[in-house]
Amino acid sequence: MSKTGSSRARFWEVDAARGLAIVAMVIFHAVWDWAYFADTDLGEASSYFSGPIAASFILLLGLSVSLDRDRTRATHRSQAGRAAHRVALIGGAAALVTLGTWVALPESFVYFGILHLLAACTLLLAFTARLGAVANALLGVALLAIGWSGLLDGPAPQPWLAILGWDAPRATVDWYPMTPWAGFALLGFAVGRTWYADGARRFSPPDWERQTAPLGTLGRHSLLIYLTHQLVLFPLFWLLANAVA
């Protein structure tokens, strides 16, 4: 793994940050699963944990898109083709989540959760990338401001518009509309354009690559872990809940 800033290099701190987000997500989902089978409610306070975890994933998605564009350019591949591949990959994973939750939780299945959002943000960034760091940062701040202002509180004018930022039109266990959440992706892209311009670090972090290697490994396989961790956790906590009942 090069530290010199090659456009093909991976950056250990990005992989480690994604790995740390994965660990936090798995812990949170373990607590959620236990509460679900124990017939308790985590309450609104749980958003103070789930929100930052989700924001970190979305921001890292924007940063990763920025880095990937540099790698794609260096290998003379099509940016549009690469973006389509990423959207299809993440969108396919989102479809699996929808299918899986529809089977396991039909009354509150996921129809626009965080993976759906990440796919939509990848598509959005394919159009805004050429605007540069400043414009993407401003757009990101605008989406966050609108989303947190309360302007879009309540039901959408039409249910299909809800994904733009209004309340979920029906019960779901995972709801991340474009506003405000896509704002973090745009900010992440701006960070990538600024701190990793042309695939090279513009700062000098401490050399913790070896110490963070386990997190880096998790980070490099984050999508697979996301898709499979509940296949382990959900039945495990079902068994535990029934064992102590």
How do the strands and helices of this protein lay out in sequence?
Blueprint: H1 12-37, H2 47-74, H3 79-104, H4 114-128, H5 132-149, H6 178-195, H7 213-220, H8 222-244
Helix pairs in contact: 1-2, 1-7, 1-8, 2-4, 2-6, 3-4, 4-6, 5-6
Please indicate the percent range of residues in DSSP E strands (runs of 2 or more).
Answer: under 5%
Q: By helix and strand content, what is the structural category?
A: mainly alpha
Separation of termini?
A: 50 Å
Shape: globular
**In the residues, how many domains can be counted?**
1
Average per-residue pLDDT, rounded, comes to 93
Instruction: List low-confidence stretches.
Output: 1-7
Explain the overall architecture.
It contains eight helices and no strands. The protein has one domain (12-244). Helices cover 66% and strands 0% of the residues. It is an all-alpha fold. Helix 1 (12-37) packs antiparallel against helix 2 and helix 2 crosses helix 4.
Provide key terms for this protein.
globular; mainly alpha; 245 residues; 8 helices
In short:
With 245 residues, this protein is mainly α. It is built from 8 helices and no strands.
